[in-house]
Amino acid sequence: MIQRWIAGAVLGLFAVSASAISPYIQGDPVAAGSVQAVASAVEAKLRNEGFKIAGRYFPRSLAGYGVVIATDDAMLSEVGAVGGHAVLGSAIRIGVKADGSVAVFGVAMNEGENSDGEWIKRIDMQNNIAGLPYEIYINNKHVEAPHGRFRIALAFPDVGMGQFMRVSSLPNAIMDAMSNVAGVDKKTTGDAW
Predict the structure, then answer these.
(1) Could you tell me if 101 and 26 are in contact, meaning their C-beta atoms sit under 8 angstroms apart?
(2) CA torsion 133→134→138→139, rounded to 10°?
(3) Distance, CA of 1 to CA of 22 (rounded, Å)
(4) Would you list the domain boundaries of the chain?
(5) Closest to 104 in 3D by CA, of 145, 45, 46, 156
(6) 52 φ, ψ to 5°?
């Protein structure tokens, strides 16, 4: 019986420490300037380290923030060998801010109350801008994207239930946007992964 208590306590400690891991790591800062200039400086650093720049993203209603998306041949080779949903691992997102400090196809949500800039402000997660834009990809001739509930939880693990409830309509809005971009009828929420 005492062994069970000890094992339970050890597992509890691991569970607590595991929940503290964030998918975001603060990188080396670059000189402050316009967010586009900061993104260019980050891109130059990435190229110097052998990465390829896949794109950039600047949410319309979140001035001073942006994302640089990079990849490299080794990542693409590994992802290609695995196939399927592993394509989500083919890009690294690096969040950039105009002050110089924050890492597939990207789909922006630029309209209305569910625009990227608006909902990010509602949950106060501007510093995790690297979680945008959303991924959409082609897998065996099927257009796929992770469900909004999964994607938001994955990209913004520090969002509490109260914060998440402020954007509870967002997963369906994401599904609608992805369906419109892909030109297909959306699956029901129950069918989406």
Answers:
(1) yes
(2) 130
(3) 35
(4) 23-182
(5) 145
(6) -105, 135
Give every strand in the sheet of 65-71, ordered side by side: 52-57, 65-71, 92-97
CATH class for the region spanning 23-182: alpha beta
The token duo for 80 is 């290609």
Phi-psi region of 139 (alpha: psi -120 to 50; beta: other; left: phi over 0): beta
Q: Which of 93, 172, 177 is nearest to 143 (CA)?
A: 177
The token duo for 3 is 């062994």
Q: Where are the alpha helices (DSSP H) in 83-169?
A: 116-122, 148-155, 161-165
Helix (H) or strand (E) holding 117: helix 116-122
Query: Hey, is 187 helix, strand or coil?
Result: coil
Number of Cβ within 10 Å of residue 84's Cβ equals 11
pLDDT band at 116 (very low <50, low <70, confident <90, very high): confident
In this prediction, residue 18 has a pLDDT band, given cuts at 50, 70 and 90, of very low
Query: What is the pTM assigned to this prediction?
Result: 0.54
Give which of 148, 157, 163 is closest to 193, Cα–Cα: 148
The pLDDT, as a whole number, for residue 193 is 37
